């Protein structure tokens, strides 16, 4: 399978080029950048044979069977729809689009065309999160009562661009990080948040967009979720705590792109460190996508997962702006 990269991005450079090439028989044919100069330098740095400023050159290339979209968020929809029209499978970055309706349009188009469409939610691929889900689902902490997610980080200098000053490109911590937390909660509990309340702040980095948010979500089962996402916290650690009637799971430093962190299971017998796999998160995401291309199983996070994480983030934004509790609107989903 030959891939076209749409976006000369940091995430492709740091993780996804390697993840695509880690799959047997998968290689990268071309990269699209809006800048000829940047595209050429990017292609040279990453040994990509072609680069182009013309998206049609990727779509009309019959050798290219799939595209990885990692441009800024406002471009995902148009690029995905064009790729799907050209018969290309799509791995799309989160948030899928600027609105739930747009994301639904993208996912429906891929489905109608019989193409594989995935959302690149990396966390559910981590050995840590897979293990936490297994502990929850196998009843090791009894009935889940509540969860706290600490996902306040310090946005590295090289990423302090559109994320902190460009709302129309999809900037802000809510589209950037809340989507990942929503996906993680849905992955663990296998249910979708129904209502949220939130407060947001533009403390120091955000210019016209929020750089910090706290929110509370209610779940159909009654589980209570508390989350904190930020770009501005230099000294915070990340983590998830899941509390149940028979025990708790305390996971530290697991809201990350790397296979690191610690998990402790706490119950009547004491504190138990839990081992987990340290495989590469993005390689697993691509591996499941590659298998789905062969007709085996689903991508790790599907298009539907991307729609739902975006719907939660959209509700958090509305709740933060209005100061009111907001029902999560998953839109007009096809069943
Ligand atoms: P970048 O800012 O690195 O890249 C986004 C776009 O910015 C590129 O497509 C590129 O445009 C342009 N760009 C890159 N470098 C420069 C530069 N030096 N000067 C001017 N423009 C530049 O974004 P990220 O890689 O951080 O994010 C891209 C997407 O991936 C987003 O949707 C984001 O939400 C998602 N993401 C997902 C992660 C995950 O773990 N799933 C992690 C990080 C990001 P062009 O292509 O035209 O050259």
Summarize the structure in short.
By secondary structure, the chain is an alpha/beta fold. 35% of the residues lie in helices and 24% in strands. α4 runs parallel beside α5, α6 (127-137) packs across α8 (173-189) and α8 (173-189) packs across α10.
Structural features, described:
The chain is an alpha/beta fold and 335 residues long. Helices cover 35% and strands 24% of the residues. The protein is built from ten helices and 15 strands. The strands form two sheets. The protein has a nine-stranded mixed β-sheet. The protein has a six-stranded parallel β-sheet with strand order 3-2-1-4-5-6, sandwiched between helices. A hairpin with a 3-residue loop joins strand 11 and strand 12. Helix 4 runs parallel beside helix 5, helix 5 packs antiparallel against helix 10 (303-322) and helix 8 crosses helix 10 (303-322). The chain is globular and about 60 Å long. The protein starts with a strand and ends in an 8-residue tail after the last strand. The model has no long low-confidence stretch (mean pLDDT 98). The structure holds NADPH dihydro-nicotinamide-adenine-dinucleotide phosphate (NDP). NADPH dihydro-nicotinamide-adenine-dinucleotide phosphate is lined by residues 7-11, 33-35, 38, 70-73, 93-94, 120, 122, 159, 161, 176, 257.
């Amino acid at each position: 399978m030959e891939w076209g990269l749409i976006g000369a991005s940091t995430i492709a450079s740091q993780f996804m080029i390697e993840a695509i090439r880690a799959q047997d028989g998968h290689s990268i044919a071309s990269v699209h950048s809006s800048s000829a100069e940047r595209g050429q330098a990017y292609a040279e740095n990453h040994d990509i044979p072609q680069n182009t400023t013309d998206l049609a050159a990727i779509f009309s290339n019959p050798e290219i069977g799939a595209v990885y979209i990692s441009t800024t968020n406002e471009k995902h929809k148009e690029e995905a729809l064009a790729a799907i029209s050209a018969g290309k499978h799509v791995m799309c970055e989160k948030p899928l689009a600027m609105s739930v309706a747009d994301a639904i349009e993208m996912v429906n188009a891929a489905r109608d065309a019989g193409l594989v469409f995935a959302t690149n939610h990396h966390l559910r691929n981590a050995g840590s999160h897979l293990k936490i889900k297994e502990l929850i689902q196998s009843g090791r902490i009894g009935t889940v009562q509540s969860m706290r997610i600490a996902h306040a980080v310090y946005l590295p200098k090289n990423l302090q661009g559109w994320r902190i000053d460009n709302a129309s490109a999809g900037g802000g911590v809510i589209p950037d990080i809340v989507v990942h937390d929503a996906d993680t909660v849905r992955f663990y509990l296998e249910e979708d948040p129904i209502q949220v309340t939130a407060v947001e702040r533009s403390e120091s980095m955000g210019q016209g967009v929020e750089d910090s948010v706290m929110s509370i979500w209610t779940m159909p089962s009654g589980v209570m979720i508390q989350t904190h996402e930020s770009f501005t916290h230099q000294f915070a650690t990340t983590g998830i705590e899941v509390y149940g009637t028979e025990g708790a799971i305390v996971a530290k430093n697991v809201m990350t792109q790397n296979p690191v962190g610690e998990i402790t299971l706490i119950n009547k017998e004491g504190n138990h460190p839990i081992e987990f796999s340290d495989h590469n998160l993005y390689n697993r995401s691509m591996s499941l996508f590659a298998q789905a291309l062969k007709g085996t199983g689903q991508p790790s996070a599907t298009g539907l997962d991307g729609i739902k994480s975006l719907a939660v983030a959209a509700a958090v934004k509305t709740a933060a702006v209005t100061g009111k509790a907001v029902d999560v609107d998953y839109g007009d989903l096809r069943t």
